[in-house]
Amino acid sequence: MNTYKTIDIARIIGIHVNTVRLYEKCALIPKPERLPNGYRVFTDLHIEQFKLARAALRVEVLQNGLRKQAVNIIKVSAAGNYEEAAVLTRRYIQQVDQERKNAEEAIQITRKILAGLDEREHTGTYFTRKEAADFLGVTIDTLRNWELNGLFTIKRIENGYRVYSEKDIQRLKIIRSLRCANYSLAAILRMLRAVGDDPAANIRTVIDTPNEDDDIIKACDKLLTSLAEARKNAVYVAGQIEKMQKMTK
Prior knowledge:
Elements: E1 3-4, H1 6-13, H2 17-25, E2 33-34, E3 40-43, H3 44-56, H4 66-78, H5 82-117, E4 126-127, H6 129-136, H7 140-148, E5 155-156, E6 162-165, H8 166-180, H9 185-197, H10 203-207, H11 223-247
Antiparallel strand pairs: 1-3, 2-3, 4-6, 5-6
Helix pairs in contact: 1-2, 3-4, 3-11, 4-5, 5-8, 5-11
């Protein structure tokens, strides 16, 4: 196997020499051997592990522990436990696929609910905050949080109590479905505003495309795109694990 100095690795991977040392400190690469003078000696195996780690850490999706799983895969691979790393990577890909399915289903549910909003006749039924929370299967604090973040505005009756109409409940169902699929509050608010301005707006495109003037653009605002990229990176990681396993035989 070829051998490399720290500076060589930094140039090949395109990172700073301090980052090379940080990867070693965090156990993201196998511990390199050292010469009598203390200089580190890296091999081709280290280069492949660096490539794996860089791809795995490229993930923008943070929900449901995906990034934590990615870091675990890197460390298990760095320890030379390639079979275990391969199993963990397959599980990771399965979870990413499930997250993508959940996200797509949430958009489909949203389309159906929005399509029926104008068709539903209001029966005059109103819900208290507790009744609305119980009906939706969420907590009162969750409803407060959604309201504070501008996702909806609730009417108040004469005594000052908040009341939720049937139309409010339908809107809250949309929010709940999208939150369960791990869409950010900013992404949901953007979609609701767009649909309010244009009922024919493409929900999938709007919710997956942050505005340039958003004050805070969270990674999960582009959930579908990020999940697709996460899967692509994970497939590459799986290939790297297989490649390194062959190199050590």
